[in-house]
Design goal:
Length: 171
């Protein structure tokens, strides 16, 4: 007895097509994260190969800001250091490639500022392609050590897609 209800039967390959699309998307998203982390790691490696020169801290102070009364106060270590490159005196205000980020962690910022006082001598890394850009600290290589995790998503997506394609071809 048919009550007028139209019963559609799903294609036996619908699940395979779904897994194929899901696998491709998973691999693409994982690939994007692998690419971002690899680019970050390569930049960090590059800065570690920049020439190291002596420099002198010229300014080291903590600045604060508050966007509105409901938001927390943020702090930033403002630093300027001078160095010499090929006989030319230059200065930079970049602690790292990311600059000098704002942070709500007051103690961390003040501790960093206390370690580098005006007149202190240290070393800086100078970009040979743009000597006016120098940093005190190269970036972390953590992305290089962590790249395996999004790589698992790439691998899982590829395996899922290959298995779905094999099933579709068999059918």
């Amino acid at each position: 007895m048919d009550c007028g209800v139209n019963h559609h039967q799903a294609s036996p390959l619908a699940g395979s097509y779904f897994l194929l699309v899901l696998g491709v998307l998973l691999a693409m998203i994982g690939g994007l994260f692998v690419w971002v982390m690899a680019a970050s790691a390569l930049r960090a490696l590059e800065t570690r190969n920049w020439p190291v020169v002596p420099c002198v801290i010229l300014v080291s102070e903590v600045r604060d800001r508050q966007h509105d009364p409901q938001s927390p106060v943020e702090y930033r270590h403002h630093i300027v250091f001078g160095y010499e490159w090929e006989g030319e005196r230059l200065s930079s205000d970049q602690a790292s490639l990311r600059g000098n980020p704002w942070s709500a962690k007051r103690d961390v910022v003040f501790e960093r500022a206390a370690r580098l006082q005006p007149g202190d001598e240290t070393i800086c890394h100078v970009n040979p392609a743009d000597p006016e850009f120098a940093i005190l600290e190269p970036d972390s290589l953590a992305p290089l050590y962590s790249i395996w995790f999004p790589g698992l998503f790439v691998l899982g997506g590829v395996v899922m897609s290959v298995r779905a394609v094999r099933k579709i071809r068999r059918a």
